[in-house]
Amino acid sequence: MKRLAVYCGSSMGTDPAFADTARALGEEMARRGIGLVYGGGKLGLMGVVADAVLGAGGEAFGVIPQALTDLEVAHRGLTELHVVDNMHERKAKMTELTDAFVALPGGIGTFDELFEAWTWNALGYHAKPFSLLNVSGFWDGLIGFLDTATMSGFMSPARRQQLIVADSIGEVLDKLTEAAGAGERRMVW
Asked: How much is the average pLDDT of 99-128?
């Protein structure tokens, strides 16, 4: 795995563990030689993870819509900043640039990006692994809901198992590296 897309909040959230984990993830990615692909912002957890990757000598590739650049929320110190026309182009470009996906705590943008990556995998648009880093139990409710959707017959058990869930940075990076490196198609019906 050469590059990892990190989906996360443009705010810091209420638990200091969120920012601490974003910082530690960025530092560990740089240590392992994994480049960051993310939404290109300088605010919140997005800025924390980018600054941590860059501060540890790694590469950070941002993808941001022009409208957000105009609001001056773009991070100007990145390895590369791709400015696109809209959110659809942003997600497509991020998918093109990355080998895998991880979601840290975040809001509706994070949810949207995670589920679109999963949906695009299901439709065969890519075969890249995706995951949740479950910081301080942030994703517990969603994990339970996904299990309910599976038990209710709206998601196959194989599809549900595609989503890698990890409680630590080392665990999520190891699992994603293994899945991405195995060339695993991860497409199931």
From this structure: 96
